[in-house]
Amino acid sequence: MSAARRAARPASTPLEVDVLLTDPATRIVVCCGAGGVGKTTVAAALGLRAAEQGRRVVVLTIDPARRLAQAMGLARLDNTPREVADVDTSAGGRLDAMMLDMKRTFDEIVEAHATPEKARQILANPFYQALSSSFAGTQEYMAMEKLGQLRAEADREGTWDLVVVDTPPSRSALDFLDAPQRLGSFLDGRFIKLLMAPARASGRAYLKAFSAGIGVVTSTMTKILGAQFLGDVQTFVAALDTMFGGFRERADATYRLLQAPGTAFLVVAAPERDALREASYFVDRLAAERMPLTGLVLNRVHVPGASGLSAERALSGAEALAEGRGHALTEQLLRLHADRVRVAEREQLLAERFTRAHPSVPVVQVPARPDDVHDLDGLRAIGADLADGLVAASA
Amino acid sequence: MSAPAGRRPSATAAEEHDRDWEGVRLHVVTGKGGTGKTTVAAALALALAGRGRRVLLVEVEGRQGLAQLFDVPQLPYDEQRLAVAADGGEVLGLAVEPKAALLEYLQMYYKLGRAGSLLEKVGAVDFATTIAPGVRDVLLTGKVYEAVRRRRKGRPAFDAVVLDAPPTGRIGRFLNVNTELAGLARMGPIHNQADAITSMLRSPQTVVHLVTLLEEMPVQETADAVEELSASGLPIGGIVVNLAREPVLAARRLGAAGKGRLDGEEVTEGLAAAGLAPSPAVVKGLLDEAAEHATRLALEQRERVQVEALGRPVYELTAVASGIDLGALYGLAEQLRDQGMA
I need a surface site. Which of A86, A126, A267, B213 has the fewest CB within 10 A? Predict the structure, then answer.
């Protein structure tokens, strides 16, 4: 059985990208998936395609490759959406793009929710500075926050009618959903209350009410982390106290936004075992959270050029030629073809396995390109592949 | 434990090679996401375990990548044998989990007993392992540090430790635990721990290998990582090029193939001679594949030049069309040994 024939067999529901992008009801597209699968490029290509079909789009990228950023005219990581030049706006659309600056975004939340004096205190706190620039989940949290802000701005000012977001290059695609809640539950949890106790306690009576166990905890933390570390955390938490509500509400609001109709999650994966396993987890998780999954983008799929010639026949042909003379070129081409078919077959097997486990998830396969994306034309080509899917592309 | 007989010759062949990283105890393996760093780390561990050595392969990202790769049940927080290498060497696997590392650490240094579970109960463990910036990394690298220094019967417990580290985007922060913590914990035990880890990471006992593909983005990230790591005084090891394509076409034909100038007639005749129906579609398909192959190889060659310009030893692993399984891992390990990486 040839890989091409298998690819042509509609094993899964096709994912209709153009239907999604041109539907005015689609207001947020979230591209998620494991690192290294081409999420950022897919997000950019979707944004461009939607814009050229008349949508007014803003693309939020997290950490674009240099060439991709250049292609979109993103010279700086400055947290401000800017219009991308050379987009075909004849259909009435436009494309803006921005790169996330997580520290800046965090600072802005603090400034917006605290009095100027409190804000200064927080921004100067060493624990806050570390948290806002290097906590493993801050990027995810801020990406969510920025998404909420862009959406609100779009509603308020009518600037955009579609927000496309790329998600941070985390170990696991799930971090995107988990990090905000992790931070939220930290800010809300018992530990914070414990840390705040000394700051709040006005008299000894209150301290006495503390159980001996709690004392052990604080003294242990002090022993391990050092008194000054803990002191910084306490100051930070005390200063942040007034904005707790604000933090939680914002995280909750963004979460609800993601569950709302009009949001479309696209899971991006490469046709590799690890990436597809990650995609499977994510699909299950989205279902559990009642988040609207639109489909799977299977990116960088290899397609043999010569369909209808199996790896086995190509190889035995090559063997036959190797025994004779004068057909070295054909022999090499047949070996090359056999390799390509093997790779394609393995990829289609993985794709089929995914579809067997998630039969209702629409899938679009995007062919691998020999070259990297350098300019808008490259993005347009990927956009076209996303819309057409592999079956049409290989026909 | 005796080695599979078939593997001996290659091990013997490797004895004749120079081994580039003799004396290194800790091999940190990083790379851009999707470049196959877990596979390379595993192959390196297998290669190092030749000649009867005992190698520990450590993962720190909590995704049980090693268990999946070696097709064994999930790794508990304890060393488990993953594979036996040539000459009776063995590879053990360990999945470090920050919470367990923290509790173990507390037990080891503070004899906490009940307080440990109390810390867990009030969320202090969660705080330390997921929220507090840098603490998590100190715990993970701390466990690796402990494994490198562990002794058994008067000698090091492991001849080498291979760390499947976080990707290049986060590797600088991960290995610079000290800098990360400097502003936070200026003294105290966790500060001292970070100091000890840092001095080991910067010593000749450690090297950081970078895994890349011959594609623009991963090569660029590799170059950035080399710069970042050297700036922070971390010892850079080799660059492992993963999934390199082998030229199937003879070199003189590649140019023509890339320009679409291969002779279709010749292929038609060849197919007929091979007993395959030479339909125009098949001929065109084969020529298209050749053109793509040539484009890809030319791109890889451009990127290879960039990789070599970084001035580090370069090792190449070829793509395995059938995918990675244990057998393929042994094959990759052999390639690394033949090139002198282990």
Answer: A86
